[in-house]
Amino acid sequence: MATEIHESAEALLPSGHLKPREGDFFNIDAALTEEERAVRDSVRRFVDEKVLPIIGKHYVDGTFPEHLIPEMADLGVFGANLPEEYGCAGLNSVAYGLIMQELERGDSGIRSFASVQGALVMYPIYAFGSEEQRREWLPKMARGEVIGCFGLTEPDYGSNPSGMITRAREQKDGTWVINGAKMWITNGSRAKVAVVWAKTNDDDSDKSIRGFVVPTDTKGFRARDQKGKLSLRASDTSELVLEDVHLPADAILPKSGGLKSPLMCLTQARYGISWGALGAAIACYEEAVRYAKNRVMFDKPIGAFQIQQVRLADMLTEIVKGQLVSLHLGRMKDIGTFTPQQVSLAKRNNVSIATDIAREARRLLGANGILAEYSAMRHMANLESVYTYEGTHDVHSLILGQAITGLNAFK
How far from each other are the two terminal CA atoms of the chain, in whole angstroms? Predict the structure, then answer.
């Protein structure tokens, strides 16, 4: 017993906090609950054992590792922060964020798959759907039996979703007919259900935007994969075409209304991205540290040279800052005091620093940094997409500018 007490005491800092793990420079672990650490560690093991050994080949081949879907469902990553009564894990926002961090430590395409499934399809069905829609779709999606996609962006309307052309016209019998096209849709070609956003009248007002649950086997619905991608290659990206797609009256998400509804979904996804980007940054940083310690040049490890130590110090500093931002944002989200503008700051900052870290890690690795057996260049290319989607870096800058000045630069 005395030995156990001594070992327990040694595990504590004078402040009473647990000693930080290796690589956890600011002892973020001490700010997490036991459940949050357990969730993170279980997903971390999954990524280490199942994702990292195969993701390089899938990236080069341009294929999504679909065999991982059942295991991801078993881990509870789909809609992890939605209620247990719908078959979801019922986790808090920080645990959800840690899941996104670990998945993107594997690859942005893996995190994007889970993020779209949970934040962009399951969330709107939960937030804006009827109880019947929740019961029909959420348990099957949580189990990975049904994959979903989110149709908002259009070929000519990305950063300006209010300009969408897609129309849903109500028929005399209360049914709906949708016509339009959506672009850059993750999971589009493998989805069994799509949440599609459309205007419901001809006055071009964004107030008429409503969400619809569209089974993808409905006549007139087509999905075509985007070819030629140099980023997110281990992810399905599609164009959706809807030509006279007839839907029953109960296909509409009854609580949706106006542009604010899809933007609320994007806020959920952007929050997860703020954590996910940190996962990519951590992967690049840890790879750079290992390489710097083992790569010998001029008779000593390159980590002994000042220029590489400065690189690593800059990487670590930005990761710690990003972790603290996302952690505090998650705590505010759980008590309902966060704002979309705060999410914009987190997404904008963390994706930007992750992109810089991936580039600097690639440079530290020298010629080896371009090989698929290392992760830095894959993450670097992926993060260019993450930098652009869910609101570009510049759009989030203007969101923050409006919050600061009260002046709207979008009009």
Answer: 69
Where helices occur in 76-158 by DSSP H, the ranges are 93-106, 108-115, 123-128, 131-142
Task: Give Cβ neighbours of residue 249 (< 8 Å, ≥ 6 apart).
Answer: 173, 174, 175, 176
In this structure, what token pair is assigned to residue 87?
A: 């078959």
Any idea which residues carry the catalytic annotation? 390
Q: Cα(305)–Cα(288) distance, rounded to whole angstroms?
A: 14
Which pLDDT tens digit goes with each residue over 219-263? 999 999 999 999 999 999 999 999 999 999 999 999 999 999 999
Q: What is the DSSP string of 324-343?
A: HHHHHHHHHHHHT---HHHH
CA angle (225, 394, 241) in 5-degree steps: 25
The whole-number pLDDT of residue 20 equals 52
In the chain, the amino acid numbered 384 is E
Checking if the pLDDT of 5 tops 50, the result is no
Angle separating helix axes 393-405 and 340-364, nearest 10 degrees: 140
Q: Can you name the residues that pair with 188 across neighbouring β-strands?
A: none
Token digits of residue 241: 């075409």
Q: What is the mean pLDDT of residues 183-211?
A: 92
Determine the Cα–Cα distance for residues 136 and 73; give it in Å rounded to an integer: 17
* Chain-centre distance for alpha carbon 215: 23
Backbone angles phi, psi at 97, to 5 degrees: -60, -40
Separation of alpha carbons 218 and 263, rounded Å: 26
Give the global pTM.
Answer: 0.92
